[in-house]
Amino acid sequence: MFPIRDHNPSLSTPYVTWALILVNVGMYLLTLPTGESYGALWAELALYPDLVTHGVALHGLITHMFLHAGLMHLAGNMLFLWVFGDNLEDEMGRGRFLAFYLIGGLAAAAAQIVADPMSGIPMVGASGAIAGVMGGYLLLYPKARVDVFFFFLIFFKIIPIRAWIVLGIWFVLQVFNGSSTPQTDGGTAYWAHAGGFIAGFLMAIPTWLRLGGPAFWARTHGHPPHPEAEYARSHIPVVRRRPRR
Questions:
Q1: What is the pTM for the complete model shown?
Q2: 20-56, pLDDT tens digit by residue?
Q3: Which burial class, exposed, middle or buried, applies to 157 when counting CB atoms under 10 A from its CB (0-12, 13-18, 19+)?
Q4: Domain ranges in the chain?
Q5: How many CB atoms lie within 10 A of CB 1?
Q6: CA–CA separation, 4 vs 46, rounded Å?
Q7: Which superfamily, per CATH, for 2-220?
Q8: Among candidates 191, 170, 193, 192, which has minimal Cα distance to 180?
Q9: Which of 93, 97, 157, 158 has CB 3.0 to 4.6 Å from 89, enough for a Cys bridge?
Q10: What does the pLDDT read at residue 154?
């Protein structure tokens, strides 16, 4: 299951969100693997917790946010950024949103380093920063509808679910997987996701207070403060299977 869109249209053009997506795509193309491994530039710009712990290669704290370990890794992260990023950019403004995004990524990296400070496994991906965006979204629009694509074997369906359920389940899964997966195994940086999410939630509090805080929630009841988007059903005809004779 993964979100494909929300019913929370932004009121301005999300230039920073678009720019972040373009930079991530550009960096992916620039660092495509040669043969079975990634090149020197990818290795140079990745984040290595053991090096950062010893005060070396600190640039990786920023540059790792723009690298990805595969096309699906990139596509999944950019989809999440596209779904949730435009609304925070709309409320915060472009400059604040960019700072929010980068600080969220730094907090995510810090959480992963604290979880396994001596790890030599390279850490890459925008997911920690995007987790921050998701945490901020949860605070501001907990009852926004999010269309979630469910796929199981040959069954698939798009179901609108409230943001607090989608994001809450996602966060709980990160904590559970982070607690149950040995850090030495590599793979997904679950603690980076959890740390970025918490940081994003906390960093969005000033925006929430500026909008009215509890009064904002009382006024909107957790919904977006403007009419929600309604998507038309597909006009593609459904072809039904004929029964066997």
A1: 0.89
A2: 999 999 999 999 876 566 788 999 999 999 999 999 9
A3: exposed
A4: 2-220
A5: 13
A6: 28
A7: Rhomboid-like (1.20.1540.10)
A8: 191
A9: 97
A10: 72
